[in-house]
Specification:
The protein is mostly beta strands and 109 residues long. The protein contains no helices and eleven strands. It has a four-stranded antiparallel sheet with strand order 4-11-9-6, with no helix packed on it. A four-stranded antiparallel sheet has the order 8-7-5-10, with no helix packed on it.
Length: 109
């Protein structure tokens, strides 16, 4: 066996193989679209506070979910418009799962 970074080369009487090491858990948000609001922990969606096409200010609650018997608001990080709502009330979400997408605007709402 020979290792180069995250790649391993195996040679034996039975043949050769190349193995590539992958991260065990992907970084939260690494595959999310720009402007995505992500669930900070696993939970259940209890309320959608802003719908598609609705303008929001920085700090406006977009989705509320329940985790550990408490409600947690997910707020818009900047002024913009809600482009997508990716969850429904009652849906269970995992940590790092995209809840909604905000398209930022330059002007103050």
């Amino acid at each position: 066996m020979h290792r180069v970074g995250t790649t391993r080369y195996l040679d034996s009487a039975l043949g050769a193989a190349t193995l590539h090491e992958l991260p065990r858990f992907p970084e939260p948000g690494s595959e999310a679209a720009p402007g995505s609001l992500l669930a900070p922990m696993p939970g259940t969606v209890v309320r959608i506070a802003a719908g598609v096409g609705q303008p929001v200010r920085a700090g406006t609650t977009v989705v509320v979910f329940e985790a550990m018997k408490m409600e947690h608001p997910v707020k818009a990080p900047a002024a913009g418009t809600v482009a997508e709502v990716l969850v429904e009330v009652g849906q269970t979400v995992d940590a790092g799962e995209a809840l909604a997408v905000i398209v930022e605007t330059m002007e103050d709402l």
